[in-house]
Amino acid sequence: MLTQFIIAIVALGLGSGAGYAIRKVQAKKSGDHAEARAERMLADAKAKQQEVLQETKTHEQQALLQAKEKAMKIIEEAKQEEQSRRRDLQDQQRRLEKRESMFDQKLLEFEDKKTGLEEKTKEIENIKDKIRQIKEEQIAKLQEVAKMNREEAEQKLLKEVERDAQDALMSRLRKLEQETEEELEVKSRKILSLALTRYASSVCTDTTTTSVELPNDEMKGRVIGKEGRNIKAIETLTGTEIIVDDTPNMITVSGFSPIRRQVAKRALDELIKDGRIHPARIEDAITNAKKTIAKDLRKAGEDALYKLGIPVSSIDPKLISILGRMRYRTSYGQNALQHSIEVGTISGMIAEELGADVFICKKGGLFHDIGKAVDHDMQGAHPEIGYNIMKKFGFPEEICYQSIAHHEDRPRTIEGAIVKAADAISGARPGARKQSLEQFIQRMEDLERTAGSFDGVEKVYAIQAGREVRVFVQPEKIDDLTAYRLAKDVANKIEAELSYPGEVKVTIIRETRVIEYAK
Fold first, then answer.
1. Which string of b and e fits 461-475 if b means at least 16 CB within 10 Å?
2. Nearest-angstrom CA–CA distance, 393 and 379
3. Keywords of this protein's UniProt record, alphabetized (predicted)?
């Protein structure tokens, strides 16, 4: 067993050594084969590299040749272009040289002409000097013969020409004025006739009364009250004066404010209708009257805006109430609100015919007398008051100006002239305004006295109900030119000193009569 075991071990060792030897031999053979393949691959790679390098060199050589060919071509083209430019430059240079020679020639000619002109100028100056000397000698001889200097002769000549041409100029001036007036009168009559025929309203407007009717004379005592307490309460609360006279069934409310008079009148109407008249009831009646009138004023203002097509929302409610106050305001017996509506309507119609701004004329015409609604409560004339009121409520300047324009002699805008004309039309229509006989006579006398206060006036007549004043002047004191100035002076004095509705036409009449008898 031991022997076998040893033999087995030895055999195992021999087998292992033989296997290792065999394996080593095989590994060496395999390594020789790998190195050979590697060498072959390296050799192939070097061969390919040589081929690539060879091909690359060939391509580079070809590219270099192509580049050289292109460079040569570009150089050749550049040379040709340079030669062409040189030829152009040479041509231009030849043309410039030719022009310079022409300019030199013309310059020489110009110098020759300049020299000739200078010589002629000197000759002309010499001739002028000779003429001046001759003229001075002639003037001296003329002055010696006429025994007057040049200034005196000029003044005399101008006076002669002015005297000779004055009659011709005045005749021409009168003819032109007459033609212009006739043409304008025809056009104005046409426009006014169209406007008036389109607008027809009552010429007799209602006036606000301040008289209160009583059912019987016994009511006068109740209105007066015990020891006059009722009438004192009414006067204190309304700011008016209650006049109780012998007029049957009638008492009168007096006061400078038309609104206060109307409040007192409505309160009295309510008290008389109710029958209970005492201080507490009087206060209630006056409070109710004020509320009612406030509503009436607002409604009257809105109705006026509706009639003229002006949006109510565009006007401040306070201004609408102020406009409504004109319902209780009169001017020469004409209702101020109705007058304003007429002016706005007629202004809009005339503006349509003339191509003016219709909106400005309508709105300006409606509010042109807005100052009259508060002129009893504020200082100043109603045109300025109205202008300030419209400015306060944000009206544009061209509308605010209408309050002043209708009292100006020459309004500066066409809309102002239209409103002024419409105001005169509304106030001048027959029956629109009324005056007492005493006031009428007094106004006529004032017109004649004012116009007759100027020097050179012989006679003065106020005609057409004070719409025209005819002034007869002394022809030996007033010439034609002075007559124009006199007409303006008379008109300005009437405007400054007198109050009158509408316009007053001033006519100056200068008449010369020469009488001779044949015997």
1. ebeeebbebbbbbeb
2. 19
3. Coiled coil, Endonuclease, Hydrolase, Nuclease, RNA-binding
